[in-house]
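=== Structural record ===
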Amino acid sequence: MRASVLINNYNYKPYVARAISSCLNQTYPDVEVILYDDGSTDGSLEVIREFSDKIQIIARPNHKRGHCWNQINAVNEAFKLSTGEVIFLLDSDDWFFPDKIEKVMEVFRKQPGLAGVQHPFRLVNEEDEFIKKLKRPIFSEVDILSAIYHTKRQDFYFTQTSGLCFSRSFLQQALPIQEDGLDLIAVDIRLSRMALFAGPVITLRDKLAAYRIHTKNHSSALKDKQYYQAYNTQNIEFFNRLARANNKPEFKEGNRFVAYTKVILLLLRSPMKPAQKVEFIKSWIDSFLNK
C-alpha cells in the first residue's frame, strides 16, 4: 500500500523544510509527497524547490478566498496528483514523527473499510522545542458520532489537520469540496465530520506528530469571542447539513455543564487505560486554563 502526504503551505518558510523532511524520513518505505504552495511571498518556494527531485510541487497564485478556502483548495488540487491508498494531511508548520506513517498504515491494513484514522500531538514552539502545554483532549475507543449526539458537544472527538489520515476511497467521494458559504469551516473540520458519516474513524492514543504553537495559527482566532460564535454557528450548520443528507438527527449543542458531566461519565465508562484517562483530564484542564 502506498501512502500519499498532502502538504499545504503559505508563507511558512521557517518551517516548511522540517515538514517535508519529516515525510521523506519515514520508516514506511512507500511514501509520496505532494506540496501545494498557495502563492507564498516569503521565499518559501526557494526552500521547497530544494526538494524538487524528491516531491511533487504545485505552485499557484494565491487563491484569495480566505484562509479556510485557500487550504481547502490546496487539498483539492494536491489530491488530484496523489496515487496512495491512504492520504495523510500535513500543515507545513507541523511535522511527522518518523514512525507515524508506518503505524497508521498498519491500522488501515488490519481494518479494511476505515474512512479515517486520527491521533493527538506533542506541542512545539517556534524554535522546535517541545513544550509542556497539552493539546485539547480527544477520546479514543468510542463511537464518535454516537458520542456527539449523546454529549451534545463536538469538543472532544477530533484532532487538527496534521493528525488526520483518510482512505482514498473516502476522499474520492468527499473531494473536491465545493464552496458553500461557510467560510470559517476549515478542511480538517469538514473532512473529519464527513468521514463520520462515511465509515469507521479510529482514534489512536500515540502522539505521532508535532503541532506548532505560534502567532499565525488559525486556531488562535477562536480565542476571539465574536469570531468563535460565528465559527460555532457555521460548524453546527455544516454538521447538520451532513446529518440531513445522511438521514440522521440534527445536532443541537447542549448546556455546557450538562455536556461536560456526560463527557466525564463517558470517560469513566471508556475502555481507555487509566493512564490515558488521567492524561485526558489533564489536557482538558490545561486546554480550559489556556483559553
Summary: The two ends are 41 Å apart (CA to CA).
